[in-house]
């Protein structure tokens, strides 16, 4: 009988546990040495981000600065055209801050600053749900954002029960920054 093979006759004894440890120890050593030779998929290096263009500040310097830059960028979108949260974020230098664009547009000062917040939709071409939008909705659609877009000539796909507010011909309405 080998010292590395546990047997049924000694199961439950300290000898069996020690034997099992010895049997598994070489495998652990082999697996760690092979991992050191080639990096695993979890050890991938992150790609380096491109530096912002010369003279451009980082995407977020302060939240107030970021909010102001979002508002200015959205003001570039003409009536009847749309953009996405990710499109605004990419135009500001980083697609990864799309959610922050939504937060910046939700601050309540859009109307006072003349920012057409209703022209920004999600990447699927749908109006993102906002409880304050539904509560302040007009008589026709149940959404203030949808009413404003319809007034600018934006058409919506036919709705079925449970459908979201999907914009018809979404890709042709996208504004390029």
TrEMBL record:
Protein name: Methylated-DNA-[protein]-cysteine S-methyltransferase
Organism: Aureococcus anophagefferens
Designated gene of the protein: atl1
Compositional bias of kind Low complexity: 25-41
Coiled coil: none
Secretion signal, residue range per the UniProt entry: none
Compositionally biased intervals (Polar residues): 1-16
UniProt keyword list: DNA damage
Top-level lineage group: Eukaryota
Methylated-DNA-[protein]-cysteine S-methyltransferase DNA binding domain location: 65-154
One Pfam family, short name: DNA_binding_1
Region Disordered, annotated ranges: 1-60
